[in-house]
Design a protein that fits this description.
The strands form two sheets. This protein has a two-stranded antiparallel sheet with strand order 1-2. The protein has a two-stranded antiparallel sheet with strand order 3-4. With 164 residues, it is mostly helical. Helix content is 56%, strand content 6%. The protein is flat and about 85 Å long.
């Protein structure tokens, strides 16, 4: 209950007033979000085709520069792998190393050979199956084992307000 200078508000009055405020604010947010989404759609329809055209042009220019740089690499990149211009830098960077499968090799075949010849390069992962344990937490066997395992099942109350 709340008290003001002249009157004491009952719990029902407080709840009704506060829920009315929550409903009004929620409604205002929905109106603004609707306007916002409509404005985004208008802007997307206005600028979308132009952006798509420009992105396509940028990709074509990139491909043209990449082809030029590849063909002329021995002339352009004599001292370093990039070239500075007044508009920016272009060149080549070393990517992250990765494995490529040779021929008809599969990762399953590689795993089989690793297990036999280089077992230290085989990763074995063990982890508790938390979802299965939670699904079975009400079963007597699991419920009785939880304290022994050092576990409890916690579920918090979450406050909510649904406005009409």
């Amino acid at each position: 209950m709340r008290t003001s200078k002249n009157k004491t508000q009952t719990a029902i009055e407080f709840i009704d007033q506060t829920m009315e405020e929550m409903a009004q604010v929620t409604s205002d947010i929905q109106v603004i979000n609707t306007d916002y989404e409509n404005d985004k759609l208008l802007l997307a329809s206005k600028y979308g085709p132009q952006i798509t055209d420009l992105e396509t042009k940028r990709e074509l220019i990139f491909d043209k520069m990449q082809a030029f740089a590849t063909e002329n690499a021995s002339l352009i990149f004599t001292t370093k792998r990039s070239y500075d211009t007044q508009f920016g830098i272009f060149g080549f960077r070393m990517g992250q190393p990765h494995f490529s499968l040779v021929g008809k090799t599969t990762w399953t075949m590689i795993l089989k050979k690793l297990k036999e010849f280089l077992p230290e390069y085989v990763k074995i992962t063990e982890a508790p199956s938390k979802t299965k344990m939670m699904a079975d937490a009400q079963k007597p066997l699991i419920a009785n084992m939880l304290p022994f395992l050092g576990l409890t099942v916690d579920q918090e109350d979450k406050f909510f307000i649904d406005v009409a």
